[in-house]
Amino acid sequence: IAGITQAPTSQILAAGRRMTLRCTQDMRHNAMYWYRQDLGLGLRLIHYSNTAGTTGKGEVPDGYSVSRANTDDFPLTLASAVPSQTSVYFCASSVSGSTDTQYFGPGTRLTVL
Amino acid sequence: GQNIDQPTEMTATEGAIVQINCTYQTSGFNGLFWYQQHAGEAPTFLSYNVLDGLEEKGRFSSFLSRSKGYSYLLLKELQMKDSASYLCAVMDSNYQLIWGAGTKLIIKP
To answer: Quick one: which of A69, A47, A50 has its CA closest to A60?
Structure first.
């Protein structure tokens, strides 16, 4: 079944640890995105990639890094986790990085203690 | 700054009609999206408006007025499964989506 998968589903992490959230899509979409969703706030863009080999910073990029080695995968890395990074993280993809509809993965619930 | 405003919560009765409003101020405009998000799940696409007017899709309709910076999502013949959060998002001049905090819709029998 075509779509976006994310792993892990949830994770509890000690502050200071490194963590990579995985995202894979099989729709051959060119553009991919990482958002965080916090209670009472709208989704906020962390990083995006309009095509394999390129990445860009969103609204809240500090403390996060991404890579886009191929079309399908877009991992998000927290180099040294802090409690303020406790959130639900959604990966999304779209055909291109313009006005195309974004389709979301199921999310990763991350708790940093 | 960029801002998307929508009510935090609304309550409606099964079988009725509800209108969820969204006002926006953004740097540029490349369209407005509505998404539905059930608790604990991912957002799913409902509608996209880039021109003024009403777009109808089954029980759901979405309206846009660019001059007023205003949109609404109209849900007819409400069903219990429509209980969810409804997210308004505007695509800005950089083709990035700016999201509202969402409207939690509670449907009562």
So the answer is: A47
